[in-house]
Design brief:
Number of strands: 25
Number of helices: 16
Strand content: 15-25%
Shape: globular
Radius of gyration: 22 Å
C-alpha cells in the first residue's frame, strides 16, 4: 500500500486543519483539494497536508489520495468515514476532550497481552463507530508515553537482536530513526487506533518512555547517560522522530508557515536527516539556561484554551539551577496563560507529569531534591534515591513548582471575569485521580489536577498501596511537618482528592458547557465496553 501510516488528523481551527501521513515512497498527497509533497528521512516519507477554506462549525468527510490514487479510506473498511469537524461561534462555549497517557501497544504474546488488559483507547474507538458524529469528542489529548523505546515488546526485541553485530549497540536499545519508525508503525498501526487518530483532532506531548525511562531526571543522570557510546544516536533518533511523528502536527498551518525548521525540511530536496540531527542537538542542549527548541504549544478551542507544557525535554539541569522549564520558556507559558483571560471560560494546562501529586509523595520529592542539592555523600545518596524511586515530578523541581503554582493562583484569584476553571491534565503515575486545590482568600476559578494513567499498561504491584497511602490526610499532615523541618517552604495552597484513586486502564473525558465542567473516568470491562467508574463536577 502507498500509505504506511495515517491519516492522522492533528491541529484543527475554524477553517483549517492539518493531516499527517507516512507514505511508502516520495509522492504528492492530497486531501480535500489541498496537497503537499512528502519529505524524506532516511528512506521514510512523510507529508503534512494543510487543509484550507473549510467552513466554520462544519463536518466534512475526507479522503486521502497519493499521486492521484485514493488510499483512504481503505477498500471494504468497516469504519465510518473519517471527518474533519471545525469549530466556530456556534460551538464556542462547548468542549469535550478525551485524554490519557501511557499506552503500550498490543504485543501478540497472549500472556503479556492478558497482563496488559484491554486498551481503553481501543475500546473508546469502538464506541465511537456506533455514535453519531455530533456526539464525538472535539479532541484527543495524548499526554506522553505513546511509544515505549525502552520497554520493547518481545517481537521488537527479537527483531533488534537479529540486526545487531555482537559487541556493538545494545540489542535491547532503540538507537536509530528507522528503529523508532518501527515503534510508531506498530503502535499507530492498530486498525481501531488508526481510525480514531484519523477523525479526532489529536494533541500530543512526550514523556520519558518515548525516549528512555528517567529521561532528564537530573544533571547526574544526564552526565551518566552521555557516557554511553550509543546515547547520542538514541537522543537524536528519539527527538528527531518525535518532531516528525508528534510535534509537527501540534502546530497550526500559520505556525508551520513561519517555522524555520519545517521550512528547511521542505526545502531539503532529499534526505533531511542531517537537519534533524542539528534540530535534536539544539533541543537537547542547554544554552544560557534555556533549551534551543520549544515543544510547548497552545490550542484555542472556542472559549477554552489548551496550553501543552513540555515538562520533560525543557528541563534545565546542567547549569546546577534545577528547573522544569527554562526562564524563557516559562515566560512564554505565562504570556499564553494571561493572554485574553477575560474571554476564556476554561483554561486547560497539559503536562505529562502531574503538578499536584498525592500530598505525602509531593513532600517526599521536595525533601529529596533538597537533599540532592547538598554536596558530599548525603547529596549522592539523595541523588541515587531520586533516580531509583523516580522522584522527578514538579514537586522535585521546587522553584518551578512554586512558579507554576503562583501562575495558576494568579488566574484563580483575579477579579472576574475570568475562567471558571483552571485544569491541569497529566498522566505518568499509573493511577488516575481528580484533586481540587484550595487557596487562602476568595477565588473566581475552581482549580483541579486531573490525572489519567495508564490507557493501556499494567500497574506494578507496589503502586496501589503507595498511592493509597500518599492520599491519606493523616499521612499528609505528618509529611508536611517533616518536610518543613528539612527546609521545605510553606505551600501557597492545599489540595485533596475528590475520590479514591483509580487503578487500571482508563480513559478520561473532560466536558464543558458554558462555565460548567465535569470529568468522567471510564474503564473497559470484560465485554470491551467502557463503563464510568468516577464522575466529578469541576464547578460545584
Amino acid at each position: 500500500m502507498p500509505l504506511i501510516l495515517g491519516p492522522v488528523l492533528r491541529h484543527v481551527g475554524d477553517t483549517t486543519a492539518t493531516v499527517w501521513v507516512q507514505t511508502e515512497e516520495a509522492a504528492e498527497v492530497e486531501v480535500l483539494g489541498c496537497s503537499a509533497r512528502t519529505f524524506e528521512v532516511q528512506g521514510c516519507h512523510y507529508a503534512l497536508v494543510s487543509v484550507q477554506r473549510l467552513t466554520a462549525d462544519s463536518t466534512t468527510e475526507y479522503q486521502v489520495h497519493v499521486d492521484g490514487v485514493k488510499v483512504w479510506p481503505e477498500p471494504d473498511s468497516e469504519f465510518p468515514p473519517s471527518v474533519i469537524r471545525t469549530r466556530g461561534p456556534d460551538a464556542a462555549d462547548r468542549l469535550r476532550v478525551i485524554f490519557g497517557s501511557c499506552r503500550y501497544p498490543k504485543t501478540g504474546d497472549a500472556a503479556l497481552d492478558d497482563k496488559l488488559g484491554l486498551d481503553a483507547l481501543d475500546c473508546y474507538a469502538a464506541r465511537l463507530t456506533a455514535l453519531p458524529v455530533e456526539e464525538w469528542p472535539d479532541a484527543l489529548i495524548l499526554l506522553g508515553d505513546q511509544v515505549y523505546a525502552d520497554e520493547l515488546t518481545p517481537e521488537s526485541r527479537r527483531r533488534l537482536a537479529g540486526r545487531r553485530a555482537v559487541g556493538q549497540r545494545p540489542p535491547d536499545e532503540v538507537v536509530t530513526f528507522k528503529e523508532y519508525e518501527g515503534l510508531y508503525r506498530h503502535t499507530w498501526g492498530d486498525p481501531d487506533i488508526r481510525w480514531i487518530l484519523s477523525t479526532l483532532p489529536t494533541a500530543m506531548i512526550f514523556d520519558d518512555h518515548d525516549i528512555r525511562d528517567d529521561w532528564n531526571t537530573s544533571a547526574a543522570w544526564r552526565a551518566e547517560i552521555n557516557e554511553k557510546r550509543w546515547w547520542r544516536d538514541r537522543i537524536r533518533a528519539g527527538l528527531g522522530s518525535y518532531w516528525v511523528y508528534q510535534h509537527l502536527g501540534n502546530l497550526s498551518p500559520a505556525e508551520l508557515a513561519v517555522d524555520e525548521d519545517y521550512q528547511r525540511v521542505l526545502a531539503a530536496g532529499g534526505d533531511c536527516w542531517p537537519h534533524l540531527v542539528d534540530l535534536a542537538d539544539r533541543a537537547d542542549s542547554e544554552v544560557d539556561g534555556d533549551k534551543g527548541l520549544r515543544f510547548s504549544y497552545r490550542w484555542d478551542l472556542g472559549r477554552s484554551r489548551l496550553i501543552m507544557i513540555d515538562s520533560r525535554n525543557a528541563r534545565i539541569l546542567d547549569s546546577g539551577d534545577r528547573k522544569m522549564l527554562g526562564d524563557r520558556e516559562f515566560s512564554w507559558l505565562e504570556a499564553q496563560v494571561n493572554d485574553g483571560l477575560d474571554e476564556l471560560d476554561h483554561l486547560i494546562l497539559g503536562s505529562s507529569l502531574p503538578w499536584l501529586l498525592p500530598p505525602a509523595i509531593g513532600d517526599m520529592q521536595t525533601v529529596n531534591e533538597i537533599g540532592a542539592n547538598r554536596p558530599g555523600r548525603r547529596g549522592r545518596l539523595a541523588e541515587k534515591v531520586r533516580q531509583t524511586a523516580d522522584l522527578e515530578h514538579w514537586a522535585a523541581f521546587l522553584k518551578s513548582f512554586l512558579r507554576l503554582s503562583e501562575l495558576i493562583i494568579g488566574v484563580a484569584t483575579r477579579p472576574s471575569p475570568g475562567p471558571a476553571t483552571v485544569t491541569v491534565l497529566s498522566g505518568d503515575v499509573h493511577h488516575s485521580y481528580a484533586a481540587r486545590a484550595e487557596f487562602p482568600g476568595p477565588s473566581t476559578s475552581r482549580v483541579h489536577q486531573l490525572v489519567c494513567s495508564p490507557v493501556h499498561n499494567y500497574v506494578p504491584t507496589y503502586v496501589k498501596p503507595v498511592f493509597k497511602l500518599g492520599w491519606s490526610p493523616r499521612v499528609a499532615r505528618v509529611t508536611r511537618r517533616w518536610a518543613r523541618r528539612h527546609g521545605a517552604p510553606p505551600l501557597p495552597m492545599s489540595w485533596k482528592s475528590l475520590g479514591r484513586p483509580l487503578f487500571g486502564n482508563t480513559i478520561a473525558v473532560l466536558d464543558t458547557t458554558g462555565r460548567s465542567a465535569e470529568v468522567v473516568f471510564e474503564q473497559p470491562r470484560d465485554s470491551a465496553e467502557l463503563s464510568a467508574v468516577a464522575r466529578f463536577s469541576l464547578t460545584d
